[in-house]
Design a protein that fits this description.
This protein has strands spanning 11-17, 25-45, 48-63, 84-92, 97-107, 110-111, 119-120, 123-133, 137-144, 152-157, 160-163, 168-175. By secondary structure, the protein is mainly β. It has one domain (34-58, 72-175). The chain is elongated, with a radius of gyration of 21 Å.
Length: 177
């Protein structure tokens, strides 16, 4: 990290939608993000394990190019960055036979736009998977968003918000050569 000595690794000239002119883009002068992250992964007992992590991120727009109406975004939080997010999954993975995984993903509330006008709510999503492992073949079934909660994947502006998938089930098979 010697190359950052004496200066902070900020982001410069990030693009953002102009809130006053749909379809136009502004360059934000400088953005900074600071945070911590912790993760775990390992065996708890025999073939049972845990994996997961949690992160805290404090991101801010430090300097920007004001919009055509003279509105400055300095001091706002950048879009799509939750202060807190994380996940925790429990696994059962023997060398052969039945295997399974279940867990929760948490994402805190975050702004849909850099102007901080529309807040995307936080969510908790539960995902599960079960499968069977043969010598050269695996089959698995997974359900994401088990509780069918409403969640938002991302947003490119306050008017372009992408919802997350509703409860979804998939079945897959793998063959190893």
């Amino acid at each position: 990290m010697d190359h950052f000595k004496g200066r902070r690794p900020d982001l410069y000239n990030r693009r953002t939608a102009d809130p006053d002119r749909p379809g136009f883009v502004l360059l934000i002068g400088r953005q900074r993000s600071r945070g911590v992250e912790a993760s775990i992964a390992g065996s708890v007992y025999g073939n049972f394990g845990l994996r997961g992590g949690v992160g805290y991120q404090d991101a801010r727009i430090l300097r920007d190019t004001p919009s055509s109406a003279g509105v400055s975004l300095a001091g706002n939080r950048p879009a799509n960055i939750a202060k807190v997010n994380g996940s925790l999954f429990a696994t059962y993975r023997p060398p052969a036979g039945l295997f399974a995984e279940a867990g929760v993903i948490f994402v805190g509330s975050r702004w849909a736009d850099n102007a901080n006008t529309v807040m995307l709510p936080g969510y908790e999503r539960i995902d599960v998977m079960v499968g069977y492992r043969f010598k050269k073949f695996d089959i698995r079934a997974a359900v994401t968003n088990v509780a069918d909660v409403v969640w938002y994947r991302t947003a490119t502006s306050a008017g372009q918000i992408q919802p997350g998938n509703p409860r979804t089930a998939t079945v897959s098979a793998n063959y190893r050569f």
